[in-house]
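Researcher: Next sequence.
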Amino acid sequence: MPHDFAGLGRIWATLLVVAVVSPRPAHAGDWPSWRGPQHNGHAAATTFPEAWPIGRPAPTWQAPLAAGWSSPIVAAGRVFATDRDGALERTAAFDAATGKLLWQAASAVDFDPHEVGRRHGNGPKATPVYAEGRVYTLGIAGMLHCYNAVDGTVVWKHNLPAEFAEPRPLPEGRAYVEGEDCVVVPIGAGQGAPVPLFGYTGSPVVAEGLLITAVGGKRGGTIMAFDAATGAVVWKALDENPSYSSPVVADIGGVRQVVVATGPQLVGLEIKTGKLLWSVPYQNQYDETIGTPVVAGDMVLLSAVGRPLSAWRVEAIGGAFQAREIWQVEDLSSYLSSVVVVADYVYGMNDGGEWVCVKLADGTIAWRGGNHGYYSTPVVAGDRLIGLNEKGALAILAATPAGYRELAQNQLVVESTWTSPAVVGNRLYIRSRAGLACFEIK
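Model: Next structure:
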């Protein structure tokens, strides 16, 4: 039966381990991070029925959450999510089959965004990531936690602004917006430190034994890598503002690298050292690049506010990497949404609510169609696209360049859903303004 959403206050009243049940090992079918196992929106080994159901399916379970727009992840038989209630920011683990709350952990937070970002509130937006029995979360004001996924005990943590930013006076003792530069958050008695205007929103990634995330700050790096097991700093890269985008890890030109949008540019960093391999200018107002880069072979795709979907070819020439833009598609411009690549085609939704299919090789538009709202970062499940929009409506499309073909549409919830679903087997785990919901598609 669904949980009573009014019981959120009772859940928050007791910040302790609710149950200690050893999770099963993670497997290839899990959804352990933002955009799935490979950070590219592709689900593995789904078991959805051939004929998608018509109408609004009943949720298998529901669980309340407070403020925040981080997406859920699913690993080791658990769903992990973050939220904020007043002055506390929480990480919670739920049983993936039943929705039972297994444990929760909380820390203090004081942050309110620049007025441009208040539409989406002051709760956490970075999606957790799971690896090797640990779950990692990045709070809106820069609290980076590593938890034991079994019981929620803290393995290590970093207060990013306190440790890596330049201290500033905090005369009123509370967080405040400093013009169009930053938000100054408390880090100690009478002291604050800057964080991005809209908080930390890029989701960390774990690869090669490293936890990689945007940091910024005069004493840190724009992007930093921490030992995933111990939290020790491994490398710092660049000295510029971070953006609101998430890093991804890929092999390009035979070199494993981190591809990420910073405030002023799009870059590739050597994963072992953080060395800058290549870069292209990519500055937006307020450093507001939000979409996640997508890597397809030697090509990198990205769109942002008021900018077309662009493709760069990244090549190793004469021992050095070079990136050159090879095409742009104005009809696939997106402020928030990211795209997916299936075979030789790119699929995504533009800011006008149209789905667009583009040929990867040259940017030729194969088709445009539909009207599905304003936001949708799709998931690939076999030969289908799953797109959840900001109003809780789910569109199922055929992933084919032959033409726009909607297979089904379901109104899953009636609350806002500025998130992307986690997809495991025949289940969809979504986060709405009301909380978590699990839907089993039969």
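Model: Residues 164 and 219 are 5 Å apart (CA to CA). The two ends are 18 Å apart (CA to CA).
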